[in-house]
Write a structure and sequence with these properties.
Blueprint lengths: L1 E2 L15 H5 L13 E8 L3 H11 L5 E4 L15 E2 L7 H8 L1 H24 L7 E8 L4 H16 L4 E4 L1 H7 L7 E10 L2 H14 L3 E3 L6 E5 L2 E6 L2 E10 L16 E11 L4 H7 L5 E4 L6 E4 L5 E8 L8 H12 L8 E12 L5 E5 L4 E5 L5 H16 L5 H6 L9 H24 L1
Parallel strand pairs: 2-3, 2-11, 3-8, 5-13, 11-18
Antiparallel strand pairs: 1-9, 4-7, 5-7, 6-7, 9-10, 10-11, 12-15, 12-16, 13-14, 14-15, 17-18
The chain binds flavin-adenine dinucleotide (FAD).
The site of flavin-adenine dinucleotide has 45 residues, from helix 2, strand 12, strand 16 and helix 10.
Length: 440
């Protein structure tokens, strides 16, 4: 039996709206649980992992119920940077070193499939989520060009993949009008989009497939009872044949010590007032997403109404920073000093889960009646949709792709419940210093 008392999802209770909530159509409130019932599959967490699992499995005839502690999309899925990137969070050099070429290739192909799946969902269900092509990786240091050129060459030679464009010091300024960068590499198969619109679009489709969604209905206890699982939410009990845990950074101790394999961190984004198409195209010529090359990255892009959405700084504390507008603006002004004169209309934060090797964590418990997938490590917009697909494949006994992830030997964040935040913070401070020194 596992219970949870901590409630990270409550961080959002007193928040002002994000740009995404302002811009997305209303997703009508779903009922709170107020009865006991039985279902084939109960999914805990109404983000992209949970919704994608629900959509895949509902089509196979299972009865599905989603319990969401807050509102659908109120976790990271509806508040992220919107960068729909190919690959995994770590590059192929790292993956090949760690797992060998064949497995690294499997991860690479899965990353491409994940982005394609999101595009297919958008097309099939006509989800209007402002999808735009291209993510540009920009180099903050004079040395980054070596890495970009090596990667382009390696990907062409070993993967027969050529959808990159390289920009040298002279040309990168033409792409992103900032003095911060020395080189860049455009990923043509990556995209950016409004993630809350995507999440609501998939949730609408789940409702059409007869998935029951309950909001404001946190699961607080899970127990195995012979051939079924009992999920407690307040005074109600749901009996399920299988349960999927899709809580990512908001998991707290719902799965006991499983949470020690990742670090929940908070990341923050601001949205300027609309800057207009003309200024936007002077700042980012091809309206792609941008991600820089530091350990603590800056990422930004223009919204559908030409606000700059700028994100990046993170905290490891268990609570959000008080003044996230100021916290993020300082970094934005370093990249685009002229933006000082524009208003910041929205500012918000979200919690995500980071594993040590930056690969997602999948597993089963309770004699394969409980499945979980989380820790996409900041690269989960496409991979959480894929996560739901992998969990469904496992439940349907379809192929071994879930097992490849399940068999990865993840390392626990050292320090247990008390010391893991300080230990992880020290590591982050080290890398921040390296970011700073690399720029000198
Ligand atoms: C600020 C920010 C920026 C990011 N930017 C990017 C990006 O640009 N590109 C990218 O690829 N990835 C990005 N990510 C990561 C990406 O958003 C996540 O990996 C992905 O959304 C995870 O989806 P999920 O469904 O697993 O989790 P979430 O969307 O976090 O959903 C988990 C849900 O579980 C619910 N929950 C928690 N506990 C319970 C409970 N006990 N009972 C019921 N429900 C519960 C929560 O309320 C929440 O809605 C970013 C994340 C953040 C926070």
């Amino acid at each position: 039996m596992i219970t949870t008392k901590k409630r990270t999802f409550k961080q959002h209770d007193n928040e002002k709206d994000s740009f995404y909530k302002f811009s997305a159509p209303i997703f009508r409130d779903q009922p709170k649980i107020n009865d006991n019932f039985s279902t084939d599959i109960c999914i805990i967490g109404g983000g992209l992992t949970g919704l994608s699992s629900a959509l895949n499995l509902s089509k196979k005839g299972y009865s599905i119920s989603i319990l969401e502690a807050n509102k659908i999309g109120s976790g990271a899925s509806g508040r992220n940077g919107g960068q729909l990137g190919i690959g995994m969070r770590k590059d192929q050099f790292f993956l090949e070193k760690m797992f060998g070429y064949e497995k690294a290739k499997f991860f690479w192909n899965l990353g491409l499939e994940a982005v394609n799946d999101v595009k297919s969902l958008i097309d099939s269900y006509n989800i209007d989520c402002a999808l735009k092509p291209g993510i540009l990786h920009v180099g903050n240091t004079k040395k980054d060009f070596i890495y970009f050129l090596n990667e382009i060459e390696h990907m062409e030679k070993k993967y027969n993949y050529t959808k990159f464009q390289y920009f040298d010091e002279k040309n990168i300024k033409n792409e992103v009008n900032s003095d911060r960068y020395f080189s860049g590499m455009l990923l043509e198969d990556s995209y950016h989009l409004n993630p809350l619109k995507l999440t609501y679009g998939i949730a609408e489709q789940c409702l059409k497939e007869q998935v029951s969604i309950f909001e404001k209905s946190p699961a607080d206890k899970i127990e195995e009872n012979n051939n079924e699982i009992l999920i407690h939410s307040g005074s109600n009990i749901i009996k399920a044949k299988k349960v999927i845990i899709a809580c990512n950074g908001y998991l707290d101790n719902l799965l006991g010590s499983i949470r020690n394999y990742f670090m929940p961190i908070n990341n923050y984004i601001i949205a300027t007032e609309p800057l207009g198409k003309e200024l936007a195209s002077k700042m980012i010529k091809r309206n792609c997403g941008v991600i820089d090359s530091r350990f603590m990255i800056d990422y930004y892009r223009f919204s559908e109404d030409y606000r700059l959405l700028f994100g990046g700084p993170e905290t490891i504390t268990s609570k959000f920073v008080k003044d996230s507008t100021n916290f993020v603006s300082k970094r934005m002004i370093k990249v685009f000093p002229d933006l000082k004169k524009f208003k910041i209309d929205f500012s918000w934060g979200g919690t995500l889960a980071i594993s040590i090797n930056r690969l997602p964590i999948f597993g089963t418990m309770m004699n394969e009646k409980l499945y979980y997938g989380h820790a996409y490590s900041g690269h989960g917009l496409a991979m959480s949709v894929m996560g739901g697909k992998l969990i469904s494949e496992k439940i349907l006994n379809k192929n071994h792709r879930f097992d490849i992830f399940q068999n990865i030997n993840h390392i626990k964040i050292p320090g247990g419940n008390i010391f893991r935040r300080p230990i992880y913070s020290s590591a982050v401070i080290y890398y921040r210093i390296m970011d700073y020194l690399n720029r000198l």
